[in-house]
């Protein structure tokens, strides 16, 4: 899998600077709006913190996407782009309303499937591939939403993933723009949080990242999954462990590996950096000659991380996990 600095740099255009500025302005406005995320028993924070930073990320991305594509001499009104915009807007609106009013899970899931369908059919792929993408996109959307529980983890993971997709030549202008929006948000959220991005950022952003897997690039799907391996493994392992224990899978909990790492005493910024490292390692693993070698290289650090965290949790976490 070739990565090119030239491909990455080719994605930088003037609207990226406008997007960063616009993102910061919208984030500042959301802080002033004072829509608070109050801590509950499963939260990692202990005091109310504003949420809605995702409005800055997604708002800046959507407003600057057209000028970015135009100045990079790419068509704007194409099926894939319009499908992506429609899906992101639908999911962003529903996610923000959920941040405000807390909808039942079935409504959120319906919005995720609807948004993923808009994106898939906008790409014009065959029905079997579209169905496969919809299922994968919904899983990635929920996975990044589940993982968005500590400062910088989800936003940094998506930013690094976007930059590496761009470096691989997969829609460089679009993914550099999205990465710029996420990087403009990160100083507000990591290492100490002045604002959370909320579902509007984690779910809509995850849909953008998942869109990368559907691009007409030989390694797009494999690369996207490899870059998100830390998130995907954490969620799959946690679901399997909870299913084996007979727990209700839809019930909120604090049993993800990243949560167990913090509950066992690891510093929160260190855990976040570990998950960023998994993204970079996923890119390294894609240099393997065979897909099975890539899979093995991706899996190895996850197994080591899982064993280490479970060992720590058994020794240091007193309550049920």
Biggest sheet, strands in spatial order? Answer: 1-2
Low-confidence stretches: none
SS summary, helix count: 14
The residue-averaged pLDDT reads 92
Determine the fraction of residues in helical runs and give it as a percent range. over 70%
Rounded radius of gyration (Å): 19 Å
Number of strands: 2
Distance between the termini: 39 Å
**Principal-axis shape:** globular
**N-to-C order of helices and strands:** HHEEHHHHHHHHHHHH
Secondary structural class = mainly alpha
Strand-residue proportion:
under 5%
Domain count: 1
Could you describe the largest sheet, including whether it forms a barrel?
A: 2 strands, antiparallel
GO molecular function: glycosyltransferase activity
Organism: Gluconobacter frateurii NRIC 0228
Protein name: Undecaprenyl-phosphate alpha N-acetylglucosaminyltransferase
Membrane topology: Multi-pass membrane protein
List the helices and strands and how they pair.
Elements: H1 5-10, H2 15-33, E1 36-37, E2 49-50, H3 53-71, H4 79-101, H5 105-123, H6 127-147, H7 153-167, H8 172-185, H9 198-211, H10 220-227, H11 229-244, H12 257-263, H13 268-285, H14 291-316
Antiparallel strand pairs: 1-2
Describe what this molecule looks like in 3D.
The protein is mainly alpha-helical and 321 residues long. It has one domain (5-316). It has helices at 5-10, 15-33, 53-71, 79-101, 105-123, 127-147, 153-167, 172-185, 198-211, 220-227, 229-244, 257-263, 268-285, 291-316; strands at 36-37, 49-50. A two-stranded antiparallel sheet has the order 1-2. The chain is globular and about 60 Å long. The termini are far apart. GO terms for molecular function: glycosyltransferase activity.
């Amino acid at each position: 899998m070739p990565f090119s600095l030239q491909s990455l740099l080719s994605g930088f255009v003037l609207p990226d600077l406008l997007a960063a500025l616009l993102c910061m302005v919208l984030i500042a406005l959301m802080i002033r709006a004072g829509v608070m995320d109050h801590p509950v028993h499963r939260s990692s924070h202990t005091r109310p913190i504003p949420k809605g930073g995702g409005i800055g990320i997604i708002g800046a991305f959507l407003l600057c996407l057209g000028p970015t594509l135009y100045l990079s001499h790419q068509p704007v009104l194409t099926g894939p782009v319009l499908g992506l915009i429609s899906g992101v807007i639908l999911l962003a609106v529903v996610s923000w309303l959920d941040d405000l009013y807390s909808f039942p899970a079935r409504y959120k899931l319906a919005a995720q499937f609807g948004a993923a369908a808009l994106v898939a059919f906008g790409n014009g792929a065959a029905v079997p591939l579209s169905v496969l993408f919809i299922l994968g996109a919904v899983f990635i959307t929920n996975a990044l939403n589940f993982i968005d529980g500590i400062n910088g983890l989800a936003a940094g993971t998506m930013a690094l993933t976007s930059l590496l997709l761009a470096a691989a030549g997969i829609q460089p202008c679009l993914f550099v723009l999205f990465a710029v929006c996420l990087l403009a948000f990160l100083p507000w959220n990591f290492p100490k949080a002045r604002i959370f991005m909320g579902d509007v950022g984690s779910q809509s952003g995850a849909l953008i990242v998942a869109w990368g897997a559907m691009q007409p690039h030989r390694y797009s799907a494999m690369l996207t999954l490899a870059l998100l391996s830390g998130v995907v493994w954490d969620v799959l392992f946690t679901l399997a462990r909870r299913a084996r224990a007979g727990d209700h899978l839809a019930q909120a909990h604090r049993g993800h590996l990243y949560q167990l790492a913090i509950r066992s005493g690891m510093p929160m910024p260190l855990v976040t950096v570990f998950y960023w490292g998994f993204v970079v390692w996923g890119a390294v693993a894609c240099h393997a000659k065979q897909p099975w070698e890539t899979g093995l290289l991706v899996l190895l650090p996850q197994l080591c991380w899982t064993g280490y965290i479970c060992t720590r949790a058994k020794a240091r976490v007193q309550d049920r996990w």
